[in-house]
Amino acid sequence: MTTAADRVGHGLPPASSVLAVCAHPDDESFGLGAVLDLFAASGASVSVLCFTRGEASTLVAAGDDLGERRRSELHAAAAELRLGRVELRDHPDNSLGAVPLNQLAAEVTTIAGEVGADLLLVFDAGGITGHPDHCRATEAALVGAPGLPVLAWTLPRRVSDSLNAELGTTFIGRADEEMDVVLRVDRAGQHRAIACHTSQSADNPVLWRRLELLGDQESLRWLRRPLSAGASDQVAVSSLGPRSLVAEEWDRRYASTPRLFRAEPDETLVELVSPLAPGRAVDLGAGEGRNSLWLASRGWDVVAVDASKEALGRLNHSAHPEGLPLVTIAGEITTYLADIQTRGDTFDLVVLAYVHPETAERSELLQAVASAIASGGFLFVVGHHSLSPGGTGPDLSRFYTEDDLRQAARGLEVLRLGQRLGSSDIAEPGTDVVLWARRPEAALMPAS
């Protein structure tokens, strides 16, 4: 088996203009510094867009001038890394999730266009530490430049595990097989840039231990791969880990027809969600995106998760020309839910439409789905009923009963639970079962 160490080299992806998108001053140095320095050394023009001034930092005593101090540190570090353009915005530190995704994405779009970027560099999808601001910056990059490849800085799992065990940190690492690029780097420029951030680096044992464990290597993975000439099967989606046989089978099913499921959003979802104020939503098993697209058109910031890149490619094709606030992630639902649970991420609306797991996996999946709901947030589940007259074949055992969904709603306020005649995903007649539930404000999560 090929390990990350076997692939170490200077194989930088080709780029003439690189735009780093990050949340805080020092992210460009502490995290991305060695990679940015290597791109600059290769002759690429390198720019950075930083969304906050980092005024909420707890590494130094807070003061009225902390944001200004960190701005000065960023510009000094940028000079050491040979960065061309530095864009520092004034969004609230530690609350970037409160800024509408389409607003942040529009800023990415503008800067990427002005610097002629042909590659974006970001933190990995889990934010490296699970920090919500890091995750939000990466989401904005993916939405704001849908036609550009997005390369993410990440950590090997051996490094994250060591840091977490030694220092009680919350780093999120990746297995060797998840790395796409493993570089040998010279950290001299990065160390000079770090030294400019005196407010953050003077007493930071976590930073120095991480760099010690990494040595002269940095690891990267594609969240959105470059489109090679004639590669019409590639789609602009972020990816969670290796592809499964289930994903490949769904890709074949979607590729066999111009449209596999209906294009209209679920009518009950429309009825229930229309009165709500938009927030953050996740559509689990989004498929071609009929529900995701409707939610995004109503102002919701949407994350669409599905195993099939073929389906999400169609979703992106529909969403991006309209500039809808929507991120697509290709991967297993269970993997995605475990990832967001690790970093404590939750949503104002969770949608699970026509996802029918095997019986042995159903309870665990539904509990994980429910755990993704924020305080005051809503859960919408719809699936084929086990007594549906249209249900035949071995997959009938995967269909739901009211009791199945009642179990999923433990700890939630059930607002609607019952059968519905007809199915909204396919033309054939049948019976569905629908759950609409809400997590009470400030309720504690049920014990797992």
Give a short synopsis of this structure.
Helix 7 runs antiparallel to helix 10 (205-214) and helix 15 runs parallel beside helix 16 (359-371). The protein folds into 2 domains: 5-224, Rossmann fold (3-Layer(aba) Sandwich); 241-438, Rossmann fold (3-Layer(aba) Sandwich), CATH 3.40.50. The chain contains 17 helices and 16 strands.
What would you say this structure looks like, in words?
With about 450 residues, the protein is α/β, with parallel strands linked by helices. The chain has two domains: about 5-225, LmbE-like (Rossmann fold, 3-Layer(aba) Sandwich), CATH 3.40.50; about 240-440, Rossmann fold. The protein has 17 helices and 16 strands. Strands 1-7-8-6-5-2-3-4 form an eight-stranded mixed β-sheet, sandwiched between helices. β13 (about 345-355), α16 (about 360-370) and β14 (about 375-385) form a beta-alpha-beta unit. The chain is elongated and about 65 Å long.
Question: What's the helix and strand layout?
Answer:
Blueprint lengths: L7 E2 L7 E6 L4 H5 L1 H9 L3 E8 L13 H15 L5 E6 L9 H15 L3 E5 L3 H4 L1 H13 L5 E5 L2 H11 L13 E4 L3 H9 L1 H4 L3 H10 L2 E8 L13 E2 L5 H11 L11 H7 L6 E5 L5 H8 L3 E6 L2 H11 L6 E5 L2 H10 L4 E7 L5 H13 L1 E12 L17 H7 L4 E9 L9 E8 L10
Parallel strand pairs: 1-7, 2-3, 2-5, 3-4, 5-6, 9-12, 10-11, 10-13, 11-12, 13-14
Antiparallel strand pairs: 6-8, 7-8, 14-16, 15-16
